[in-house]
Amino acid sequence: MGETKRPKIEAFHPEKKPGEIEKLMESIPQMRSNVTEPTTNYIEKYRKILHDKENDIDFLIESFIISFTEAMCLRMQELQMNNQDMANKLNLTASKIKKILKGDRGMFTLENMMKIGKILDIAVFEF
Q1: Which domains does the chain have, with CATH numbers?
Q2: What's the pLDDT at 94?
Q3: Which pick of 9, 33, 64, 117 has the fewest CB atoms within 10 Å?
């Protein structure tokens, strides 16, 4: 069989291709002009979205779940506990602890949250 010729691929090297860097540098202002809104407009949009959501019950529940699982994860790390250790203390399986840490709403019962809070010494609710 004959040898197949492969196309030659030249790596970018300024000495081999003079002017490439200059072309790239010249195109930067054009790339910037393609951006339609400055970053501050995005920040304002997100602030408005968050403000609009502050009374949305689903948003509040998800925010609570995120805060709770974050506190749970940090406290487990401080205590050097893994999912199986936590599961043993709660009489659950390690896969259910994983679901809790992933924010599975079905696992967020008041009972589970109170038990986790007591075991890890984290406040679930402040009265």
Answers
A1: 56-120 (1.10.260)
A2: 93
A3: 9
